[in-house]
Amino acid sequence: MPWPIQRFTAETGQQVQAGVVIEEPLEIRIGGQPVGVLMRTPGLEKELAAGFCLGEGLIAAMKDVALIRHCGQAAPGGNGDELAGEESRNQVEVSLMPGVIPLRQSDSPVLIRSGCGRVDATTLAEGLKPVEAGVMVRLEVLQHLIGQITPRQAAYRAAGGIHAAAILTADGQLVVVTEDIGRHNAVDKATGYCLLRGIPLGDKLLVSTGRASYDMVSKGVRLGVPILASLSSPTSLAVELANVLSCTLVGYLRGKTLNVYAHGWRIAT
């Protein structure tokens, strides 16, 4: 969104318009029960809800989902993007198939801020199984991934301060690039995009501009993604988890240079 600022240089100061990344809450409900409030960048709310619910292990599979829709009413006198009586983009309802219940239930929704994901490592690790996919990727494909992603980061070019995530095929064909102030939200949007469209993830690469943390690896493994890559660094727990769960983990992806931290056998050199 445009915002008036004062920009100073060594010689001058002037009033200009600058881009600012929008941050808004999104409440996700399953069967009418709030399960999470995410601080996120507006857009792809249904995809974000799908990626969050399956990536966090709240729902076992997309076949258990009957419908994902915006719900609630926009409050009058808001930010001008919504009118009173219209659907609110800040609340999404996930309806399950008859007889299906969430795998985990809570008395209160979890607040997940834009800068970090869940911190309950024990909960995140529940039910994780090693990735079985034997998909291979050529080294030169990894070395050209940045050139695929960067040109499609429109929000980053406009305002900065925003992460991106991408899903690609093993031969480097781009499926989707998503952006959000939260690196986990960007990942959930990208995986949710594929889940809602029936695009399999078991033969894909997941790339994030944010650091590869423990919970990013757990999200990818839970959805069967065999290869995760980050433009930043991995954490020690991310490396340990990827190693145990047969997930290929790449960090410091900077064009021709990259580090492979776990299961490099999937990279053909």
Architecture blueprint of SSEs:
Blueprint lengths: L1 E7 L4 E7 L4 E7 L2 E8 L4 H11 L9 E6 L20 E6 L13 E3 L8 H4 L12 E2 H5 L1 H5 L4 H6 L3 E7 L4 E7 L2 H14 L7 E5 L5 H9 L4 E4 L5 H9 L3 E7 L2 E6 L4 E2 L1
Parallel strand pairs: 3-6, 4-7, 8-15, 11-12, 12-13
Antiparallel strand pairs: 1-2, 3-4, 5-6, 9-10, 9-11, 13-14
Helix pairs in contact: 1-6, 7-8
Describe this structure in words.
The chain has 269 residues and is an alpha/beta fold. It folds into 2 domains: 24-120, Roll (Ubiquitin-like (UB roll)); 137-268, Cytidine Deaminase, domain 2, CATH 3.40.140. Helices cover 23% and strands 31% of the residues. It has 8 helices and 15 strands. The longest helix is centred in the C-terminal third of the chain and has 14 residues, at 183-196. It is globular and about 65 Å long.
Number of strands: 15
- Sheet with the most strands? 6 strands, mixed
CATH superfamily of the largest domain: Cytidine Deaminase, domain 2
Low-confidence stretches: 73-85, 119-124
Return the CATH architecture of the largest domain: 3-Layer(aba) Sandwich
Question: Termini, distance in Å?
Answer: 44 Å
Element order, helices and strands?
EEEEHEEEHEHHHEEHEHEHEEE
Number of domains: 2
Q: Quick gist of this model?
A:
It contains 8 helices and 15 strands. With 269 residues, it is of the alpha/beta class. Strands 10-9-11-12-13-14 form a 6-stranded mixed β-sheet. The chain has a 5-stranded mixed β-sheet with strand order 5-6-3-4-7, with helices on one face. A two-stranded antiparallel ribbon has the order 1-2.
